[in-house]
Amino acid sequence: MNLFPKLVVSDAKGAIAFYTEAFGAKEADRYEMDGKIAHVRLVVGDAQFTLKDEDSVDPAPGDRAAVILMLEVADPDAVGARMEAGGASVIFPIEDHPYGRMGRFRDPFGHVWIISRG
Fold first, then answer.
1. Domain 6-117: which topology?
2. Whole-prediction pTM
3. Which of 3, 9, 35, 118 gets the highest tally of CB atoms within 10 A of its CB?
4. Tens digits of per-residue pLDDT, 91-104?
């Protein structure tokens, strides 16, 4: 059994470029309809997530995220820096906490990510 999120974004091609640069994501498969991305699966290490362009059924989240995604990485500082360079905003900077080193970011597409040391 697998469970992975599907992110709805206003610019799927831009999101793919952002996640590829920030996380080192690799594109596993893609389906397009009428010039829009209906599905793309991205793989980051052992994790997977999908995304699609927004449409009348699935709008992009705008500035309100209903889900917070947590990504464990070897070097959260480097990933956070790449996210910022790609246009993400810092909600909480990456710092050491009693429960680990982590920070929180909003990506350019409205999704909130906790980046932590895995």
1. 2,3-Dihydroxybiphenyl 1,2-Dioxygenase; domain 1 (3.10.180)
2. 0.86
3. 9
4. 999 999 999 999 99
